[in-house]
Amino acid sequence: REVSELIAAGEVIDRPASVVKELLENAIDAGATNITVEIKNGGRTYMRVTDNGKGIAPDDLPTAFLRHATSKISQKDDLDSIMTLGFRGEALASICAVAKVDVLTKRKDDSYGTHYAIEGAEEKTSEQCGCPDGTTFVVRDIFYNVPARLKFLKKDSSEANHVADLVTKLTLSHPDISFKLIRDNKTELLTAGDGKIYSAVYSVYGREFANSLIEVDYTWQGIHVHGHAVKPLEAKLNRKFQNFFVNGRFVKSKACAAALEEAYRNNIMVGKFPACVLYIDVPPNTVDVNVHPTKIEVRFSDEKLMHEAVYFAVKNALMERDA
Ligand code: ADP
Ligand code: MG
Fold first, then answer.
1. ipTM for the complex?
2. Ligand 2 center to residue 88 CA distance, Å?
3. Which residue has its alpha carbon closest to ligand 1 atom 18?
4. Distance between CA 53 and CA 29 in Å, rounded?
5. Where does the DNA mismatch repair protein S5 domain start and stop, copy by copy (predicted)?
6. Relative to the alpha carbon of 89, which ligand is closest?
7. Which of 288-292, 302-306, 314-318 has the least mean pLDDT?
């Protein structure tokens, strides 16, 4: 393997959670309504993502693992308008460069599925097999060939928490998909996938949280903010419970977080943070999505306007509740 290839791979894939993220985004792109994520030992030795999406044609399997073979970007301008989650066409190439990958996949109308195995980017197996409709990726021994990277992984429990956080975010941004997370043979999360935000929130954060939701629905200068805010509960919340999804994607935004906390200012006790699951829809060309695949920070072309939108939306909801 070329060193440059491994470095490139390392930019996309820096820990088990980034593998899971790419596999989940692909499953979502494939139209799955049912997705299972299983990890063992923090994902270090074993990660599995199974979906019931459209599957991959046998002939397309080898190319799926080639860098940029599937890139949907032709010009820089396209970035603004790309609506599917995957657009770089290098996730699978990066994953197979640093791990051992098995794929089982079948399209609904095919009578057979395919088992494809690739290790260090080298094809090991390609054979017909029986399997359910959809796709299963199994990724083993991440960084088995990049000891320097392996050394940088945190404890298994902490790597597993990264995966769990990620699944949580995707659960909340896709209430129409049923997610299951299995961690070291134990089911940690199972969501209904009934399209209701409430039930997704319930599965992820529990009853107390779900029952104290305040509905938010507000439009400010072309920015639509909807979803729920939550007053601080007995249980100590931290900023991890502040979820902002901009145009369907989980993001970190200083403007949004500050606006939320400001709206709650007179409502919260010192040391407690309000929580939220807020969906913000804006014209795509006003978001500067950080192009780096592992980053989730965004900036808006008008940060002040975004701050206002979130502030007014939450403040308004709080006032309506108190009225
Ligand atoms: P990208 O998602 O940017 O196109 P990837 O390397 O993530 O690039 O995936 C390569 C291709 O493999 C995808 O474009 C898609 O055609 C196919 N693919 C990957 N995962 C799945 C899946 N779970 N179901 C169906 N097709 C998939
Ligand atoms: Mg992808």
1. 0.99
2. 7
3. 26
4. 8
5. 201-319
6. 1
7. 288-292
Rounded-to-integer distance, Cα 295 and Cα 289, Å? 9
Instruction: Say how far apart CA 319 and CA 216 lie, in whole Å.
Output: 11
What is d(CA 101, CA 134) in angstroms, rounded to the nearest whole number? 16
Question: Under CATH, domain 3-190 is a member of which superfamily?
Answer: Histidine kinase-like ATPase, C-terminal domain (3.30.565.10)
CATH number of 208-322: 3.30.230.10
Residues less than 5 Å from ion ligand 2, measured at CB:
26, 86, 91
Ligand 1 lining (C-beta closer than 6 Å):
22, 26-27, 30, 51, 53-56, 64, 70, 86-93, 135
**Which tokens belong to 171?**
């659960």
- Show me where the domains of the chain are located: 3-190, 208-322
Give the Cα separation of 113 and 223 in Å (integer): 45
- Ligand that comes closest to the CA of residue 70: 1
